[in-house]
Amino acid sequence: MASRSSKWTSADDDQESAAALAQRKKQKEERRRLKEERARNATKQLAPSADAAGSDGRPSKRQRTSPEQGETLPANDQSSVEEGANILQFPHRQFGPCAHVDQFELLNNIEEGSYGVVSRARRKTTGTLVALKKLKMEHTSDGFPVTGLREIQTLRACRHANIVELQEVVMGDGDGSLKDVNVYLVMEFLEHDLATLLGDMAEPFLPSEIKTLTLQIVAGVEYLHRNWILHRDLKTSNLLLNNRGEVKLADFGMARYTSRPPPPKLTQLVVTLWYRAPELLLGAEDYHFEIDIWSVGCIFAELVTKEPLFRGNNEVGQLSSIFGMLGPPTKHTWPGYQSLPNAKALHPLLSNANAKANATTTTLTASKFPYLSTSGLRLLSAMLSLSPTSRPSAAEVLNHAYFKEDPRPKAKEMFPTFPSTANQEKRRRRETPQAPIRGDAPKLDEQDLKGLFVGQAEEEQGAGFALRLG
Ligand code: ADP
Fold it and tell me: Would the CATH topology of 105-187 be identical to that of 191-461?
């Protein structure tokens, strides 16, 4: 019985377990269905747009890299959205080969300066005239000349109506060595430089023309100073004039960036002698924008008289010429000049001088500049102050009353044109000293300076100079 019963029991049990199995299977299927449904819902939340899903409707497995709502990417950045958009990206450096000088037809040489040979040339593709300045490599013992580097660096940074435009830098053929490489600056061409023009003119410029020229020169200088650039070689041969009455500053071989306070130990041997400020002649190393203003003062005077203002043969002669016209420095006209390096040698001589001891400013005499109005003379005297701190800034010069009084500056369009000498084989120009060659720093000694005052005392008798030696 037990076995039968057991058998019957067993049959019941079998039925029971089959039902339980079916139930479990059903529950399992239900769980799977629910799970799938949850998964589908989750997918819908992750993939708000059909674009984000794959073609089979499944969400893309890629990490979300598209911008948040409201964010935009630059059009040309869309590619980076796909791959690695969250990685910092830096623009590639573009290195292009320099163009070759043979795209220019050489017409004639204009001038050989201290640091380059300038020629007139024509761009073959457009027919436009350009000036080609071939850099001289001979002033450098190692590598590229620093004057060339400075000229390229500063001119490339400048965009101003009164600064010559550097269009590009091109290469010529060489033997491959750095010493032999030929580098040319391609610049806009201007028909004249003011030194050659003044030398050729029978009469000086009219007062209204002097104002137009001076205003443009000072506007170029103001732009440089506003951008922390010192030109350091302003002179009439570095000022170019075209036949539309526009003046432009050129020759940036001495230019450099500066700061306030100025960088330590600047070279003193800058600026062509005749246009060099007295603080440079006395050995100042921490000079500033005022040295350019002194040069502009010399240029202004030269435009008025047609002749360079101070024409020393050497540093001592130059100081002699300056002090002869303006009087020697005193503690009133130039406080602190005694601390300049070369003033030590000068001091014993000056302490004997019985000159304008109480004057606080230096003044120019009207007799030397008969064509200049009182206000013009005042402006010139200010620019030629012995003390650098007494000189006006370029911005102040631009606002000076001299430019507002009659006669008003002549409109550029009305400016006279002059026959250009730039198509002659070499410009004829009166002799002027060259820009200083780097590495030739002058040191004045007491002997030189004695010479200065003896020479001056002799000159004084005839010319009525202000300096009196005890
Ligand atoms: P360097 O640095 O060797 O002294 P510059 O740049 O001063 O050379 O140029 C020497 C001369 O060449 C200038 O005085 C001027 O007569 C002429 N010159 C320079 N640049 C130009 C130009 N862009 N257009 C016409 N003549 C120019």
Answer: no
Going by pLDDT thresholds of 50, 70 and 90, the confidence category of residue 192 is very high
How far, in Å, CA of 285 to CA of 349, rounded? 23
- Cα(213) to ligand 1 centroid in Å equals 18
Per-residue pLDDT reduced to its tens digit, 421-440? 766 655 556 667 777 765 44
Residues 223 and 163 sit within 8 Å (Cβ to Cβ): yes
Nearest 5°: the CA angle 310, 311, 312 is 110
The residue ranges of every structural domain in the chain are 105-187, 191-461
422 lines ligand 1 (CB under 6 A): yes
pLDDT band at 452 (very low <50, low <70, confident <90, very high): very low
Catalytic residues: 233
Does the predicted TM-score (pTM) go above 0.70? yes
Give the rounded distance of the alpha carbon of 44 from its chain centre.
60
Arch. (CATH architecture) of 191-461: Orthogonal Bundle (1.10)
- Position 462 scores a pLDDT of 29
Nearest protein CA to atom 14 of ligand 1, as residue: 237
Q: Is domain 105-187 classified as CATH 3.30.200.20? A: yes
